[in-house]
Amino acid sequence: MNYHVLKLFYYVAITGSVTKASERLHISQPAISAQIRKFERENHILLFEIKGKRMVLTPLGKRLIEPLEKFFAMGDQVQQIIEDYHKFPEGNLRIAGNYLATSILIPRWASLFKQSFPEVNIQITTTNSHGVMEKLNNFEADVAIYSDMEFPSHNTGVFEHRELYRDEYVFVVSSQHPYANQQVSFEEVMSEAFIMREEGSAARERLVRLCEERSVQQPTIGLQFNGVNEVIQAVIAGYGISYVSALLAKPYLDQGTLANVAVENVVSKHSIWMGYRKKELQESYMQSFITFVMKQLSLK
Amino acid sequence: MNYHVLKLFYYVAITGSVTKASERLHISQPAISAQIRKFERENHILLFEIKGKRMVLTPLGKRLIEPLEKFFAMGDQVQQIIEDYHKFPEGNLRIAGNYLATSILIPRWASLFKQSFPEVNIQITTTNSHGVMEKLNNFEADVAIYSDMEFPSHNTGVFEHRELYRDEYVFVVSSQHPYANQQVSFEEVMSEAFIMREEGSAARERLVRLCEERSVQQPTIGLQFNGVNEVIQAVIAGYGISYVSALLAKPYLDQGTLANVAVENVVSKHSIWMGYRKKELQESYMQSFITFVMKQLSLK
DNA sequence: ACAACTTACGCCTCACGTAATGATA
DNA sequence: TATCATTACGTGAGGCGTAAGTTGT
C-alpha cells in the first residue's frame, strides 16, 4: 500500500480541489494530480468524478475518508510518542481521569509520587469516563482513571484494570427543594427536571440505564454542563435535581448546601477503576506508579 | 512521517532480527539495517540495542509496537475497502451480529432483502456483542447488531443506533433441575454453578454487573462455551444454570427441555440494537437495508 | 478569457542490491 | 569459523517541478 498517495488523496478530498490541496501540502498541482491518477490506474478504481470544475468523490472515495482519518490519527500518535521521548527523556506519565478522579484522588497521588520520582514528567487530563477510555485506547494516555462502565473496556486483552475505590451515586437537590431529605419513588424523582453533564459521563449513562431497565421515561435534562462542579453549583442555585457521585457531593451535603434525596429501590453503586497497558508494554516508571497508588490505597 | 521505515522497524522488532525480517519482507539485510539506522539518526532516537547477537528493543522501541499494530491494521482496512470494491462492484453489505441476531433475526431479513436487492452481496459474521462493535469500529462491518451495552457505543458521534427489539434475559435450567419453575432469591441462584459464554458476551456482562450492583460474589462459571447454542445444550444435559436471552430460550422452554427459574427482584430487560455509520458515509444500499429492516419490524 | 485539471518530460532523491567489512558466540 | 549486523557504493524507480495542453464556465 502506497501510504503517501493516501495523504494526497485525503487532502484533495477534504478541500474538494487539487489546487487547494497543493497549496496546503506545498506540492505542485500536477504532481498531486499525477499521483492520484496513477493510484487509480494501478488499482482499477475511480476516486473522483469531475462535475464541471469541481472534483466530486465517488462512493468508493467517500468510503475511504473516515478510515483514513483514523489511519492518520494513529500515525500521528506514533510520531507523538517519538517526539515526547525527546521532551521527557526521564519518563512521561500521561494520566487521563474523569472529574471525580482528577479533582479528588489524583492531585494527592500525583504530588506524592512526584516527590519520590521527581524526574518523571506528569500530565493530567480531565474528560468524561468515555473520553478517558478513548485516550487510553488511542495512546494519548498511559493511565486511565474512570467510573465503572464495565463494558467493553474490561474485556480487551490489551489493558489491565484495578478497582480503586467503591462509591455510589446519589440524587441531590438544593436544601430548599421540596424533595430535600425526603424519601420518594424512582418515578417521582424522574419526573423532575435534571441538571446533568454531557453524554459520555458515567453518571448520566447510569441514570439513562436505570430508566431503560425500569421502562421509565428518560430524564428531562433542563440544564447541561461540561463539568460536574458546574452541575453542583447549578443545583445549589435551586433549579432541579442531579445524580452525582457521593464522594463528590459529600462536602456540600456536610455543609448543608446540598441535600440528599432517598430514592426507593435504586442500586447506585459504582466503582472507580484504573486502567493501563499490560506490563510488557510499559515503561518502568509506570509500574512504579501503579504500585505506588495501590500502596496509598492500602494505607487508608 | 516516513511510513515505510515503520514497517521495516516493526518486522525487525517482532522477529527480533534483521535477517529474519529481511526474509519475510524480501528485502536485503543491509537495506533494512540502513533504513532503521537512518531513521534513528534523523529522529535522534535509539530503537534497538545490540545484546550479543540479538536485537533488543529499547523502552521507546517497545512503546511503538502496539500503536504501530493499530496503525497497520487501519491501513489494511483501507486496502480491504479498495479490494472489496472490485469483488463486489454492485455493493457489499457486511453485517456483524451476535448469535441472537445472526441466528434468529438476520436470516429472515437478509433473505428477504436479497430478494429485493439481488445485486447486493451480503456477508454475515457472528461474534459476541463486544466483537460486533469492534468490527463496526474497525471498518470490518457496515452494520452491527448487538445486545444492549449502551456505553460507549451510543455516545460516539460517528454511528447511529436504533433499537430493534426488546427482550429480556432469563435464568434457565434443565427441566429435571431442583430450581426448575421455582421462585428463588438472587443470592441462591448465584451460588449455583453457571454455564456461560466467553467474556464479551452481553448476557455474561449483565450477570457480572448484577452481582457487582448487589455486592454478591461473582458467578462460578463451571463450563464456558464460545456459542450460546452450546451453552443451552449443556444446560439441557443437566449441569448447572445459565442466563440467556428469552427469545433464544423460548423454543426450548415451550418444548419442555429447558425450564425457567424465577429470580426475585432482578431486572433483566435488554434490547437488540442496530448500529451503522451516519448517512453521509454510507452507500445507497445501506440506507435501503436500514429502511427495509425498520419496515419489517413495523409489519410484525 | 480564465481557472481549473491533465499530459509530457527531465531531474534528483532515496530505497534498493551486491560486495566487502566488522563483531560476537 | 559461522552467523549475525554494518559500511560502501553503484543503480533504478518514482515523486517532484516546470511548461505546455485540454476542458468547462
How is the main sheet of chain A built?
Answer: 8 strands, mixed
Structural class assignment of chain A: alpha/beta
Count of DSSP strands of chain A: 12
Rg of chain A computed from alpha carbons, rounded to a whole number of angstroms: 25 Å
The H/E string of chain A reads: HHHEEHEHEHEEEHEHEHEHEEH
Share of residues in strands of chain A: 15-25%
* Domain tally of chain A: 3
CATH class of the largest domain in chain A: Alpha Beta
Largest interface: A-B, 57 and 57 residues
**Distance from first to last alpha carbon of chain A:** 55 Å
CATH topology of the largest domain in chain A: D-Maltodextrin-Binding Protein, domain 2
CATH architecture call of the largest domain in chain A = 3-Layer(aba) Sandwich
Morphology of chain A: globular
Uncertain parts of chain A:
150-155
Assembly category = homodimer
Keywords (chains A, B): DNA-binding, Transcription, Transcription regulation
Domain HTH lysR-type (chains A, B): 1-58
GO molecular function (chains A, B): DNA-binding transcription factor activity; transcription cis-regulatory region binding
Protein name (chains A, B): HTH lysR-type domain-containing protein
